[in-house]
């Protein structure tokens, strides 16, 4: 009896964890020198419609005017951009923001009403200037199966 109860309890916890999976953002392997951004979503798991992204990073670079935060949502099966959002970070804070500072911002934008079965979300900071070859920081989450 006791074993059955424990088995049922573990099964329910596992099922609840799978159903309410939290979106996991990881390093962008295509940009190995980029700092990893911490990204939290509301709602999570992701749903079509308005999505809130809380993004933070301990800076190893300076945020100056023309430092952009960018969000891309890309269909992974039929590679195409589904949604994109960007903003100059200095529009939300006094610049410059110096290295060593933990910098956080919150952004809302609308995801498409219909999302494919497998897609990814990439979030990154970059400087819009000639000669900059990749983002300063980046995070990516692969969603779906």
TrEMBL record:
Pfam families in the cross-refs: E1_DerP2_DerF2
Domain MD-2-related lipid-recognition: 24-118
SUPFAM superfamilies cross-referenced by the UniProt entry: E set domains
Any coiled-coil regions, as ranges: none
The keyword Transmembrane is annotated on this UniProt entry: no
InterPro entries cross-referenced by the UniProt entry: Ig_E-set (IPR014756), ML_dom (IPR003172)
Highest taxon in the source lineage: Eukaryota
UniProt KW keywords: Signal
Protein name in UniProt: Phosphatidylglycerol/phosphatidylinositol transfer protein
Species, as recorded: Rhizophagus irregularis
Lineage: Eukaryota, Fungi, Fungi incertae sedis, Mucoromycota, Glomeromycotina
